């Protein structure tokens, strides 16, 4: 582990120093590269990654923006309290087209299949409700005959284990992890974890996933290639308890956790050991994301982290640029 943590390539102070709850990179036609920050004050701020200055302020609502994603022409947001909105990108800005209002009090973030324009939305009584991008309900994932109770959904991850097997990994309040077959809306595997999962991610090529929770352990799990069974593999200890977000980089070389202590920890997928602990933030990390394309200013895939201190840090770490 490095004796001294490296510095970010840039630190953005969010508008009005508003705490950052969610982040998403956006690469639009014409070379426009932006980072979107969902904030406590109900705004999404779009930062131009050429200048690292705010380019657009999007008023979504009054509540914190818990999650957001951006497609080529749409912005999808989730507000605390259960409002899910879809905005179309127009020549004059963003226009709200769809509102899904569930009166959902939890913090579980939605998932999406953008190719099929499908949203997987957390709901009450252990359910996941499925909508299309027009706001029409098309199905649900509802556990049956569950004992003990699962509790509310806490985290989700959409995965395509094969081209014909789209699945949803869902972590529940009581500590259970369920694997849902989205073709049949049936649960095909279960795993009892040690804590209430707060965040989950899975790397298909690694065939391994990561769970962040309130403990001082990052849990590693696998999905069997043939029987699709969930299995606990090992625990990786961290110094301080509490993880709000885990994320695997697309190349499967590293994964990251964002902690309640404000620390960002990067781990090797090969050794499952921590490579570095980044201590730039002063309050809890709420989101960590990797860019899906190289950011031209640094010619690298950039990691962005945001937290309750109102800071957004940009990092270029463990990238092979050869």
From TrEMBL:
Q: Which domain of life is it from?
A: Eukaryota
| A Pfam match | WD40
Which terms are listed as keywords in the entry?
Repeat, WD repeat
**Coiled-coil residues:** none
The record's WD repeats, renumbered to this chain, cover: 278-322
Check the record and name the InterPro entries matching this protein.
WD40/YVTN_repeat-like_dom_sf (IPR015943), WD40_repeat_CS (IPR019775), WD40_repeat_dom_sf (IPR036322), WD40_rpt (IPR001680)
Name by which UniProt lists this protein: Guanine nucleotide-binding protein subunit beta-like protein 1
Species source reads Papilio xuthus
* Gene assigned in the entry: LOC106121887
């Amino acid at each position: 582990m490095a004796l001294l943590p490296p510095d970010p390539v840039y630190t953005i102070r969010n508008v009005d120093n508003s705490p950052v709850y969610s982040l998403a990179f956006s690469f639009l036609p014409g070379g426009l590269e932006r980072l979107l920050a969902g904030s406590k004050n109900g705004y999404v701020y779009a930062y131009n990654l050429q200048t690292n200055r705010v380019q657009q302020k999007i008023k979504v609502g009054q509540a914190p923006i818990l999650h957001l994603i951006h497609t080529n022409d749409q912005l999808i947001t989730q507000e605390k309290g259960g409002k899910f909105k879809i905005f179309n990108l127009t020549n004059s800005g963003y226009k709200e087209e769809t509102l899904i209002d569930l009166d959902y009090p939890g913090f579980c973030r939605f998932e999406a299949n953008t190719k099929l324009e499908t949203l997987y939305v957390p709901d009450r009584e252990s359910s996941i409700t499925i909508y299309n991008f027009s706001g029409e309900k098309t199905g649900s994932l509802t556990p049956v005959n569950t004992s003990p109770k699962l509790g509310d959904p806490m985290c989700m991850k959409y995965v395509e284990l094969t081209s014909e097997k789209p699945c949803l990994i869902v972590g529940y309040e009581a500590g259970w992890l369920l694997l849902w077959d989205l073709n049949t809306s049936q649960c095909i595997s279960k795993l009892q974890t040690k804590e209430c999962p707060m965040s989950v991610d899975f790397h298909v090529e690694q065939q391994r996933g990561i769970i962040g929770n309130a403990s001082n352990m990052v849990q590693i799990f696998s999905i069997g290639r043939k029987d699709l069974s969930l299995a606990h593999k090992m625990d990786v200890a961290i110094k301080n308890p509490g993880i709000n977000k885990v994320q695997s980089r697309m190349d499967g070389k590293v994964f990251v956790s964002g902690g309640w202590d404000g620390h960002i920890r990067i781990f090797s997928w090969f050794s499952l050991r921590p490579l570095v602990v980044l201590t730039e933030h002063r309050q809890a990390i709420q989101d960590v994301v990797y860019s899906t394309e190289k950011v031209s200013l640094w010619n690298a895939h950039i990691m962005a982290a945001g937290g309750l201190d109102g800071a957004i840090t940009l990092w270029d770490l463990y990238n092979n640029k050869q």
